[in-house]
Design goal:
13 strands; Peroxisomal Thiolase, Chain A, domain 1; binds oxa(dethia)-CoA; four-stranded mixed sheet; globular; single chain; 11 helices; five-stranded mixed sheet
């Protein structure tokens, strides 16, 4: 029996800090070149916060934008889920900080840790509150300040990441309305945990002078291992999701992948056999903003006229963990 209630996205808001860090800026900081970064990643520039700006600030701006577009007051929000690996602090959660900053009196919420897949996982979690009839307005946010955990002397990681946030409002679709989430497929593979991680600052390696000296509070990445895993699994999870819904790749109007590397996205699109106009790629302007990439790319798709009412959309991500996810939905507005 199909569920009588189906969650849909009714609004999208995004925010990136104004300051730009260009490839030319990075050329002056580490031994790299605009040509290498463009060829190997597709990134030209990324947005970076000023000192004192935290993830909840970006998340709150994105949330306020989503609420303003929908024309609803913050008091109407029932749940706030924030996907992030760079919370303002371990606790309280970023969801609590955002709740206070936007004045969502009456909401509860929590943070969700799934690295680059956090936005997709949070959509899945948020949709359940709607589908079960428990809540009617859920705010799902993906936000990260990757610049807070990057070693800007490590050329292998500092060229990739940026800061940014996006928020969507989930509400129930009307009865019989052909809009909203169709299916989710997520999985994790913890054997890849050491390929991309931040070893310091947690219960295993609490902060000490030594952990700081060893830069254990920064991103450590085996780029090639992550690249290989991502190329294989992003296509695989999409393929499985399409098949179990009786769809083929050419049915997809809009493919919105996590923006980690242009080569990963192009390879996935090729492997799947998507239509050439379907993939949305904006990594050149934002870099990899971890949980922020998919909502930021949704906005790009809207701006480019590729995401409109009735569009069949496929979201996909692979991230640290490893975490993998894909989501099928029909755009509602
Ligand atoms: O969002 C979550 C997940 N993260 C990812 O999906 C990242 C996946 N991995 C990647 O995107 C790529 O592996 C990177 C962009 C991180 C690296 O690209 P690559 O083509 O895999 O380069 P590599 O690590 O194989 O390094 C090739 C060469 C090395 O030099 P040698 O040993 O061949 O002399 C590196 O030292 O490129 C060098 N290199 C650089 N050169 C200039 C590495 N980083 C840089 C740099 N500028 N920024």
């Amino acid at each position: 029996m199909t569920n009588p209630i189906r969650a849909k996205i009714t609004s999208l808001g995004t925010y990136v800090p104004p300051r730009l860090l260009t490839n030319q800026d990075l050329e002056a900081m580490v031994e790299t070149s605009d040509q290498w970064i463009m060829e190997r990643t597709g990134i030209r520039e990324r947005h970076i916060v000023e000192k004192g700006v935290a993830t909840s600030d970006l998340a709150a701006e994105a949330a306020k934008c989503a609420l303003a577009k929908r024309g609803i007051r913050p008091e109407a929000i029932e749940v706030i889920i924030v996907g992030t690996v760079t919370p303002d602090m371990f606790f309280p959660s970023s969801a609590c900080l955002v709740q206070h900053k936007i004045g969502a009196k009456g909401a509860w919420g929590f943070d969700l840790s799934a690295a680059c897949s956090a936005f997709i996982y949070a959509l899945h979690a948020g949709a359940q509150f709607i589908n079960t009839g428990v809540h009617k307005k859920v705010l799902v946010i993906g936000a990260d300040i990757m610049s807070s955990i990057i070693d800007y002397t490590d050329r292998a990681t500092c060229v990739i990441f940026g800061d940014g946030a996006g928020a969507v409002l989930l509400e129930p679709a009307a009865g019989g309305e052909d809009a909203g989430f169709i299916d989710f497929l997520n999985y994790v593979d913890g054997s890849g945990g050491r390929s991309l991680y931040m070893p310091g600052g947690g219960s295993l390696n609490p902060s000490t002078h030594e952990t700081v000296d060893k830069k254990m509070h920064c991103v450590h990445q085996d780029g090639q291992a992550v690249f290989k895993y991502a190329v294989r699994n992003m296509a695989d999870v999409c393929d499985r999701l399409l098949k179990r819904n009786g769809l083929s790749a050419t049915d997809i109007d809009c493919f919105i992948p996590h923006q980690a590397n242009k080569r990963i996205m192009v390879s996935t699109a090729d492997r799947l056999g998507l239509r050439p106009e379907a993939p949305i790629i904006n990594i050149d302007r934002f870099g990899n903003t971890t949980a922020g990439t998919i909502p930021l790319a949704m906005q790009t798709a809207i701006d480019e006229g590729k995401l409109k009412k009735g569009s069949l959309v496929l979201l996909a991500s692979v991230g640290a963990g490893f975490t993998t996810g894909a989501t099928l939905l029909r755009w509602a507005y």
